[in-house]
Design goal:
Helix content is 28%, strand content 30%. The strands form 6 sheets. Strands 6, 7, 10, 11, 12, 13 and 24 form a 7-stranded mixed beta sheet that branches. It has a 5-stranded mixed beta sheet with strand order 1-3-2-4-5. It contains 12 helices and 24 strands. The protein has 3 domains: 114 residues, Glutaredoxin (3-Layer(aba) Sandwich), CATH 3.40.30; 179 residues, FAD/NAD(P)-binding domain (3-Layer(bba) Sandwich), CATH 3.50.50; 105 residues, FAD/NAD(P)-binding domain (3-Layer(bba) Sandwich). Bound molecules: flavin-adenine dinucleotide (FAD).
């Protein structure tokens, strides 16, 4: 592997057969996550493909000329020509390997695969998930000098990292951008000396053997496993939903309702969370239009009565949103009356979607801890599951309130419990 500057680009990349180039920056978490993977792959593929690193901040002109606008970005060259798609951000090892393999013939690929050696490492604790819950557990375990690894298929931070402004996390006078909180928590966890394995593929998890396989070949065995993999909000899969997520469509009233003071919003859903969140939103909004697919709300009776008594809320029963758009700064929702099939547009300032979350348990494989009827992991007060030495924390557990503060509390409790059990 070579570190080069723009001056050597012609010789080292354009006149040099097969080359993969990593444009990296400093103070860049995904670049740090990529560096060890790039190094390992350079050892494996280095005799067939040249591995080159370029420091983007000092070679901006070249980066711009190549269309590199974020770090890290990997570019692939074959005989002076750029080939394959570039990849940026939280880059997985498998994504790079797929591209490298496609630059070689099958014999060359087989020869490389034979040389891939499985690795095995042992830890006191393995944490699955690097959101606020997992990071907090990491901070406590690292400070307790327990050998800990934190594993995440994405970058650390979880939902916190993608929340525009967090105004209810104690210790900050002003609302903080979520990515900054995520950055501080990740750095704090790293400084305790725990290992980070991020942007990896989780190939297998065996909670009974306490083994996790990442990137197919790396087996991690731990005395204790903490599950902190959070949830995924259910989506309607309606056109425009993905595009306006966080830009007009929100999945969290606690976080975003305050930005809709004296505005009109839509709430989609009709269960407990939709009704409770709609009531909460009326503290700020001028009007809330609920869109619910059934002819009755499915929330508890007390919440329904509160809702009926609230003059700011109107419910459109037996309606469903079909499409979202933004026009002149307003959100446009195309709504369908399920009985008459008539479609019409509603123009509001924002949209809240509460059609439930799904707990991220799929990765846990065949042996899953006991779950409540909604699919969340049941834990005791120490955040132990029913599987010995397996803990669960954060949004994935069965509990009433899912916030950053409650996630960090769970992480604290599990980590202190563990640090008293492993001496
Ligand atoms: C849009 C939105 C805005 C919010 N705003 C606020 C707010 O302003 N204030 C507040 O207090 N709360 C807010 N919340 C709630 C808060 O973000 C969550 O309660 C909190 O992030 C939960 O932390 P967690 O660590 O349990 O899970 P998450 O934050 O969901 O993190 C889970 C982590 O696990 C990783 N993961 C997923 N699958 C796997 C796997 N198979 N293996 C390993 N890792 C995996 C994910 O990549 C992620 O990094 C918001 C939630 C949403 C959805």
């Amino acid at each position: 592997m070579k570190e080069i500057s723009a001056v050597d680009f012609g010789k080292e990349v354009l006149q040099s057969g097969k080359v993969v180039v990593d444009f990296y920056s400093t103070e860049c978490a995904p670049c740090e996550a990529l560096a060890p993977k790039f190094e390992t792959l350079a050892e494996l593929y280095g005799h067939k493909i040249n591995f080159v690193k370029i420091f983007r901040q000092e070679n901006r002109e070249l980066a711009n000329a190549l269309g590199v606008s974020s770090s890290p970005t990997l570019l692939f060259f074959d005989n002076g020509k750029q080939v394959l798609d570039t990849i940026s951000g939280g880059i997985k090892k498998s994504e790079i390997m797929n591209r490298l393999d496609s630059m070689l013939n099958s014999e060359e690929v087989n020869e490389i695969k034979i040389n891939q050696k499985p690795t095995f490492s042992e830890y006191d604790v393995a944490i699955l998930g690097g959101g606020p819950a997992g990071l907090t557990a990491g901070i406590y375990l690292g400070q307790a000098k327990l050998k800990t690894v934190l594993i995440d298929p994405a970058l650390t931070g979880g939902y916190m990292g993608i929340t525009h402004q967090v105004s209810n996390y104690p210790g900050y006078e002003k609302p903080q951008p979520g990515f900054m909180l995520a950055h501080y928590m990740s750095e704090q966890a790293k400084q305790t000396g725990i290992d980070f394995k991020i942007a990896v593929d989780i190939s297998a998890v065996d909670l009974l053997k306490k083994e996790i396989v990442i990137d197919s070949l790396e087996t991690i065995k731990a005395k204790k496993i903490i599950i902190a993999t959070g949830t995924t909000p259910n989506t309607m899969n309606a056109p425009g939903e993905k595009e306006f997520k966080g830009k007009g469509i929100s999945y969290c009233a606690t976080c975003d309702a305050k930005y809709f003071a004296n505005k009109d919003v839509i709430v989609i859903g009709g269960g407990n969370s939709a009704v409770e969140e709609a009531l909460f939103i009326t503290k700020f909004a001028k009007k809330v239009t609920m869109i619910h697919q059934f002819d009755k709300l499915t929330a508890n009776q007390t919440a329904i009565e509160q809702l009926k008594a609230n003059e700011k809320i109107e419910v459109l029963y037996e309606h469903e949103p079909r499409e979202f758009e933004k026009r002149n700064g307003k959100m446009i929702t195309l709504v369908e009356n399920l009985k008459t099939k008539e479609r019409f547009e509603l123009m509001t300032d924002g949209i809240f979607v509460f059609i439930g979350f799904t707990s991220n348990i799929a990765v846990l494989g065949r042996t899953v801890p006991a779950l409540d009827k909604w699919g969340y992991i049941i834990t005791d007060e120490d955040r132990k599951t029913n599987i010995p030495d397996v803990f669960a924390i954060g949004d994935i557990i069965s509990k009433k309130y899912r916030q950053i503060t409650t996630a960090v509390a769970d992480g604290t409790i599990a980590a202190i419990t563990i640090s008293k059990e492993i001496i």
